Amino acid sequence: MRLKDKVILITGSGSGIGKSTALLFASEGAKVIVNDLSGVGLETVSEIEAAGGEAIFIQSDVTDASSVAAMVDQIIQTYGRIDVLFNNAGISGVGVLHEIEPEAWDKVINVNIRGVFLPSKYVLPHMIEQRKGSIINMSSCIAEIGLARRASYAATKGAVLALTKSMQVDYAPYNIRVNALLPGTIMTPFVEKYLKNSYDDPAAAIESLKKRQLSEELGLPEDVALAALFLASDDSKFVMGSPLYVDGGAVFG
Ligand code: NAD
């Protein structure tokens, strides 16, 4: 078991990639803290427990400082440590820049960047004290390639990649690794909603997405979960500040 007894917080793990990762990490022996905005995370915990794993659910909004601080306090009171933080929670933002309403812009920036800042801010003091930790930040291959009508979302994922590198330099002296995941198109509720809201013919949109990558298949949440497992475990002990592409070659598409 590659994560035996590691205490791992995964934000936004009531759905999609976060949920898949929570299930995989628990099957590898981790004690998983499932976080989400609403009770949707309880289902993830039930599935983990049904498979014989260990998990608790903490409802918290990753953009709310006092809520995140309370979540981290609860984890420390329960387990005494946090070994891995996966900053996964995120929302989509669609539209060309001049058509984006300022409030919609702020919301995407808030969830996707502040939502990485706050859990990191409150978890890091514990990792510093432990002199060990792994933080995984959810970026996207959109940080490196232009995609139509995704201005606000691309801005946030580029920021997360830059933040990852900066964090890595600052926290390397404490034996804390900080890496980023850069998925391509992964079929989750997040993407299904985007396709449904943005295209008259979502099936045709899926075919055109496939043409923009090297793989003939779109990614699955499990593909990203396996990459997260590598970054969470000590198998990646020499991997620091890296962007890990899980995109079927979309950056070459
Ligand atoms: P998803 O919508 O299935 O899951 C995201 C979860 O985050 C949801 O359960 C949601 O409730 C939760 N969440 C949203 N705002 C939150 C908040 N303020 N506090 C706590 N939880 C919150 O999405 P997904 O596709 O699994 O995406 C997960 C992450 O992966 C996101 O950061 C997304 O940007 C990134 N990503 C996804 C893809 C893709 O193609 N699906 C590609 C690249 C990157």
TrEMBL record:
Matching Gene3D superfamilies: NAD(P)-binding Rossmann-like Domain (3.40.50.720)
GO-annotated molecular function: oxidoreductase activity
UniProt-listed GO biological process terms: bile acid metabolic process
InterPro entries: NAD(P)-bd_dom_sf, Sc_DH/Rdtase_CS, SDR_DHRS6-like, SDR_fam
CDD domains assigned: SDR_c
Keywords: Oxidoreductase
UniProt cross-references to PANTHER family, sorted A to Z: DIHYDROANTICAPSIN 7-DEHYDROGENASE (PTHR43477:SF1)
NCBIfam families: PRK07231.1
Family (UniProt): Belongs to the short-chain dehydrogenases/reductases (SDR) family.
Protein name (Swiss-Prot/TrEMBL): Short-chain dehydrogenase
Organism: Paenibacillus baekrokdamisoli
Classification of source organism: Bacteria, Bacillati, Bacillota, Bacilli, Bacillales
